[in-house]
Write a structure and sequence with these properties.
By secondary structure, this protein is an all-alpha fold. Helix content is 77%, strand content 0%. The chain has one domain.
């Protein structure tokens, strides 16, 4: 066996799946990037909407790549899966393009536009999670959480309740810390979903070998 073939086989686990760190890395990047963007937004609203706009295609690409496992488990046609993903995320990106190109963006403040954009991304990610990649379910909830914190920056009841639940003192003054804790919780919950999906893949391959 050649060196290239050895490298190829070593990049896969014994059950034919990609190594767990490789599977979890995209999710970790999404949660960490969202916390970073939320922190930047908390520092100053002006200009940060551009970073969120760039982030949307990143989420779309991660959804496209990470959803292959669920498509395999569900025995979906790969071409049909690709078409669904392109139409799904293309519609969201196209809607944001229309908001900017048709003058609607100028009618909204930076805060309103940022909340709208993150809210649309949260809904889009939730729909993608339910239909094509369940691993993103907790990430979509976290996006919605961030959108609500930005929409209600002062005395946010969800921020206070979540902070108290997590044992964070004076959470209303620590939105970034609370959001980071929620992101960590969402990432850990997503790990359990990843294990479930990997188990489903192994079970399906075992049935095929019988």
């Amino acid at each position: 066996m050649s060196t290239a073939e050895n490298d190829k086989h070593s990049s896969r686990s014994s059950n034919g799946l990609s190594p767990l760190p490789v599977t979890l890395l995209p999710l970790l990047v999404l949660f960490a990037a969202t916390v970073l963007l939320f922190w930047l937004t908390q520092k100053g609203m002006a200009g940060t909407d551009r970073y969120w706009e760039i982030f949307i295609p990143v989420v779309a690409v991660v959804s496209l790549l990470s959803g292959w496992t669920q498509a395999y488990v569900a025995s979906d046609n790969r071409l049909w899966y690709l078409v669904r993903q392109v139409v799904h995320w293309g519609a969201l990106i196209g809607l944001l393009y229309l908001l900017n190109s048709q003058g609607y963006r100028e009618l909204l403040s930076d805060q309103q536009y940022t909340v709208l954009m993150i809210g649309l991304l949260a809904v889009g990610t939730l729909l993608a999670a339910v239909q094509m990649d369940i691993k993103l379910i907790f990430f979509s909830v976290f996006l919605g959480f961030c959108a609500f914190l930005i929409a209600v920056p002062t005395d946010n009841p969800t921020l206070i309740a979540t902070g108290n639940l997590l044992g964070i003192a004076e959470p209303q003054t620590k939105p970034v810390l609370v959001s980071s804790a929620v992101a960590l919780s969402g990432f850990i919950a997503s790990i359990f979903v990843v294990f479930m999906m990997r188990g489903a893949v192994v079970a399906k391959r075992a049935r095929k070998r019988r």
